[in-house]
Design a protein that fits this description.
- The chain is of the alpha+beta class.
- A hairpin with a 4-residue loop joins strand 20 and strand 21.
- Among the domains are: about 160 residues, no CATH class; about 140 residues, no CATH class.
- It has a 23-stranded mixed sheet that branches.
- Helix 2 runs antiparallel to helix 4 and helix 8 packs across helix 10.
C-alpha cells in the first residue's frame, strides 16, 4: 500500500491591518488633567495681568500720594504707574518733580522710573531691589538754587529715601541712570552748565556680597560736558557710612570749554573767554578723610581777567578773608590732603583790571605759559614750584620762578621776577593813575627777588627805564599848561637820574620789613608785594626825583 503524501496546509496571508491591536493601558487621571491644568495656569496669568492693568489708576494715585507725604519742600506728579504682579516690578511713568517755592518750572522729569526685586540676591538670603531711571532730566536755575541754599532743611534731609521706600519697601542695592541730562542755568540762559548722555551705575549699595572693606560698592559714571567735553569717574563707595557716604574714585576730564563758567565766575570778579580744561585725578571723601589729588591739569587758549571795582571792594575783601581762613584751617591738617601734582596753563592771557583808579588801568601777561608742580596743603610734601613765562603788556619778556611752602602760621615763599623791555606807553593809564603823567616812548625792565618767612619780607625791586620821553608838545597840546609843565619836570627829573652811557633810569626799592599782618596768606603777601613793590617801584625813578621840582 503506497504511503499517501501529505498535502501542504494553505498559508493565510495575514495583513498588518488584520492583526488585533494590543490593548492600551488606561490613562492616568493626572495625564488627563494636565492639559486642563496648563490652560488654567495660562488663564490665571492672563487674569492677573488684566487685573494688574486695571489697577494702574489706583497704583498711580497711591504712589503719588505716598511720595508727596514724605517729601519736604518738593512735590511730585505721576502720570502713570504699573505693578507687574508676576515679578513685583513697579514702573512709574512721566514723574515730574517741582520745588514748591517755584512750581512753574519743574526741577526734574523722569520718563520711566522702575523698581524691581533683584532676584539673584535672593540666593544669598538678601531681599533687595534695583532702581533704574531711564532718560531722566534735571533742570535747576539760579533762583531755585538760592532757595535751596537758604532753606533750613538740608537737601539730604528732604525725605528722598523715605519717599522711595514708601512705594517700594525694599532696600535699594543697585542704581542706574540711563542716558540722563542735567542742566544748571545761572544768570545767562545762553551759557548753561549741561551734562548730556549721563550714565551712572552703583552696585552692592547695601553691601550684600562683599567682605568687610572700606568701599564695598563699585560706582561708575560718564557724560558729555557742555556739548563737546567728556567726563568720567570710576571707583568705589560706601553708602552706609554716617553722617555722609564715602567715595574713592579716579576722575577724567577732557576738552571741557571754560567759557560756560563765565556767569558763575563773574560773581567773584573773574571773567573767562575761550579755553579748554583737561585733567586726571583722584578724589576720596568720607567722614574721616578728605583727599583731592590732581595728577595733571591743563588749561589751553584761555583769557582770564580779574576786575577790581569799587562797588565790589567790600565783597572782595570778604572773599580774601574767607580764603585765608579756609587755607589756614586745612594747612597741614592730618585728615585733609589737597594736592596738585602738575598744572599747566598754555597759550593763554592773564589780565588784572583796576576800576577803582582814575583812569582805570590794566596789567596783563600774554603768551602765557605757567607750570605749577607739587602744590599741597602739607609741609611734609615739600615745596611747590612755579615757572611762568610770557609777555608783560604784550611786549616785555617775563619770567617768574617761585617756591611755596604751606605754613599754618602764614605765608612762606621765595620769588624771582624779571621783566625785560616792556612798553612804557602801554602803562600810561597806570602812570596817570599814580603819577599824574604819561610818556610818549620808552621801555621798562623790572628785576626783583623776594623771600617771605614768618611774617617778614626781604628783597628788592629794581626797575630800569630806557629811552624815556615824557613830554610831547604835539601830543600834549590839548592838556592844561600846568599839566604840561608837570610832565616837562618829570622828563627833566628822568634825565637827572639817567646813566649817560646806557641811557637808562635806574632805581632800587628795598622791600625788607614786616608784612601788614604776620599771618597773612601767600596770596595776600603776593598782592602786597605787587602793590608796595612793583606798582610803586615804577614811579620812583620819576616821582621821587620830581617832588621838589614838579609844580604844586
Amino acid at each position: 500500500m503506497k504511503n499517501k503524501q501529505a498535502l501542504p496546509m494553505p498559508v493565510r496571508d495575514v495583513k498588518e491591518n488584520d492583526r488585533a491591536a494590543p490593548e492600551q493601558p488606561p490613562r492616568s487621571r493626572g495625564a488627563r488633567l494636565a492639559p486642563w491644568l496648563g490652560v488654567g495656569v495660562v488663564g490665571f496669568v492672563v487674569i492677573l495681568m488684566a487685573v494688574s492693568y486695571l489697577l494702574d489708576p489706583t497704583i498711580r494715585s497711591w504712589a503719588e500720594r505716598n511720595l508727596n507725604a514724605r517729601l519736604k519742600g518738593y512735590e511730585t506728579h505721576v502720570a502713570g504707574a504699573h505693578l507687574n504682579i508676576l515679578d513685583a516690578a513697579l514702573t512709574l511713568r512721566d514723574v515730574t518733580l517741582i520745588q514748591k517755592a517755584h512750581p512753574q518750572s519743574p526741577v526734574a522729569h523722569f520718563p520711566i522710573f522702575t523698581l524691581e526685586i533683584r532676584w539673584r540676591d535672593l540666593f544669598t538670603g538678601h531681599v533687595v531691589a534695583d532702581l533704574s531711571l531711564f532718560h531722566p532730566r534735571l533742570h535747576i536755575d539760579l533762583i531755585q538754587l538760592r532757595t535751596e541754599y537758604t532753606d533750613k532743611v538740608p537737601l539730604s534731609k528732604k525725605g528722598w529715601q523715605d519717599a522711595v521706600e514708601s512705594i517700594y519697601p525694599i532696600k535699594i542695592n543697585h542704581f542706574t541712570i540711563d542716558d540722563g541730562d542735567a542742566i544748571y542755568v545761572d544768570t545767562d540762559p545762553n551759557r548753561p552748565l549741561r551734562l548730556e548722555h549721563l550714565y551712572v551705575t552703583a552696585d552692592n549699595i547695601r553691601n550684600t556680597r562683599s567682605a568687610a572693606t572700606p568701599y564695598p560698592s563699585p560706582i561708575q559714571a560718564e557724560a558729555t560736558v557742555f556739548d563737546v567735553g567728556q567726563a568720567s569717574i570710576k571707583g568705589r563707595a560706601n553708602f552706609l557710612t554716617k553722617p555722609v557716604a564715602s567715595i574713592a574714585a579716579r576722575y577724567h576730564l577732557e576738552n571741557v570749554p571754560l567759557k560756560q563758567f563765565k556767569p558763575e565766575l563773574s560773581r567773584i570778579n573773574f571773567t573767562v573767554e575761550g579755553g579748554t580744561l583737561a585733567s586726571d585725578g583722584y578724589v576720596e571723601y568720607g567722614p574721616k578723610v578728605e583727599r583731592v589729588e590732581v595728577y595733571q591739569a591743563k588749561i589751553a587758549g584761555a583769557r582770564f581777567a580779574y576786575i577790581h571795582a569799587a562797588p565790589t571792594a567790600a565783597a572782595e575783601a570778604h572773599r580774601v578773608a574767607a580764603v585765608k581762613a579756609g587755607t589756614q584751617k586745612i594747612n597741614n591738617e592730618p585728615e585733609t590732603l589737597i594736592k596738585i601734582d602738575k598744572l599747566e596753563v598754555v597759550d593763554s592771557q592773564a589780565v588784572y583790571i583796576n576800576d577803582t583808579q582814575n583812569p582805570h588801568y590794566k596789567l596783563s601777561i600774554s603768551n602765557l605759559y605757567l607750570e605749577l608742580t607739587n602744590l599741597s596743603n602739607h609741609f611734609s610734601q615739600g615745596p611747590a614750584h612755579l615757572v611762568l613765562r610770557g609777555r608783560f603788556m604784550d611786549s616785555g619778556v617775563t619770567t617768574i620762578r617761585g617756591d611755596f611752602r604751606p605754613e599754618k602760621a602764614g605765608s612762606d615763599f621765595d620769588l624771582d621776577l624779571a621783566i625785560r623791555d616792556a612798553s612804557l606807553p602801554a602803562l600810561n593809564n597806570l602812570l596817570r593813575a599814580y603819577g599824574r603823567f604819561d610818556v610818549q616812548s620808552g621801555q621798562l625792565s623790572v628785576f626783583s627777588q623776594v623771600k617771605v618767612r614768618r611774617g617778614e619780607m626781604k628783597g628788592y625791586v629794581k626797575p630800569l627805564f630806557t629811552n624815556v620821553k615824557v613830554y610831547d608838545p604835539a601830543k600834549d597840546k590839548n592838556k592844561s599848561v600846568v599839566h604840561q609843565a608837570y610832565e616837562m619836570a618829570v622828563g627833566a627829573a628822568a634825565k637827572v637820574v639817567t646813566n649817560s652811557s646806557t641811557q637808562k633810569v635806574a632805581t632800587k626799592v628795598d622791600l625788607s620789613g614786616k608784612l601788614d599782618n604776620p599771618n597773612v596768606s601767600t596770596w595776600q603777601a603776593l598782592v602786597q608785594f605787587v602793590q608796595n613793590g612793583f606798582v610803586n617801584a615804577i614811579l620812583p625813578g620819576f616821582d621821587r626825583q620830581t617832588k621838589e621840582t614838579a609844580p604844586g
